[in-house]
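OP here, attaching both records as promised.
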Amino acid sequence: MKDATIDYVLRTTWLAVTKMYNEEASKFDSTMATGFALLSIDPENGTPSTSLGPKMGMEATSLSRTLKNMEERGLIERKPNPEDGRGVLIFLTEFGREKRNYSKEKVLTFNETIKANVATEELESFYKVAEIINNMISNKKIYNKKEHTLK
């Protein structure tokens, strides 16, 4: 593993996490995407549908499919946004709140288990490196348009 690239470690770790969450969610006829959507919806005030995609890092078409499935399963309901007539707010149903609590419990269990097995300093370093990577990507410090312009 010493020859692995940073992106390889990130990718394979995320795939392992995804697989773990999907295996757990499948026990309850659900998916990781549904669980993360439940956690991303404000349980009191609802959430504008347009803010869910960026919040979850999900493309609009995938999010639409997930929300449609969630609505069919009775986890969410859509209501017009009173502050924006064109917008829609997504609210959790009572069943959705129950499933949200279950998803929250699974995420907290994952986090607490990692924290119990990784030194605080190592976790702080992990968060710092992840923040640096995200900032470099956001600020286009790895690949910039000038470098890749065709002549």
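Record two, same layout:
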Amino acid sequence: MKSEQILEALDAVDDRWLQDAKPESTGFGSKRNRLRTFAIAAAAAVILLFSGFTVYRVGMVNGWWQRPSNDPLAVVQSAVEGEINWEYTQSASFERAEIDEAETARWKENLKGSELARSYGWSDDYIEHHFLVVRAVYTVQYDHTKTWEKDGRLERLYFLRQDQETNLWEVYEAQSPNETP
């Protein structure tokens, strides 16, 4: 190919791109701008979807670093050990956990028909079959320049719910046994 033919081909390409960029085609309604807006929105949606999935897979569920499991005690252990991911936690060491039958029964009765249960969309049947209270003992050290929470050897009640589709248990709340919700 001769240099003149190459220059003519480049001129033709440049003219085509310049014609597409005419002022009358730069409004929001132009096909090019609609496609660009759609592409940006789709990319943002994909990023949000994958970041949410990633957070779930690495363990952040309902504000708790945990691994949902068929074993409620394993979930609580993962939540305790997951406290190390909190910005103010210096160390966390799990000791033991057990299902607290008395607290579970007490909380089930308090939850049935309550505003709290309605706000979560829980029926009385759901509460009866998919709710547990687990009592855990562990040691944790916090950076007291970042939090006022008590540390040391702690006992805490973990409130678990079971996902009806996956049958996995997950922590949705925790409190010290003597706290009032």
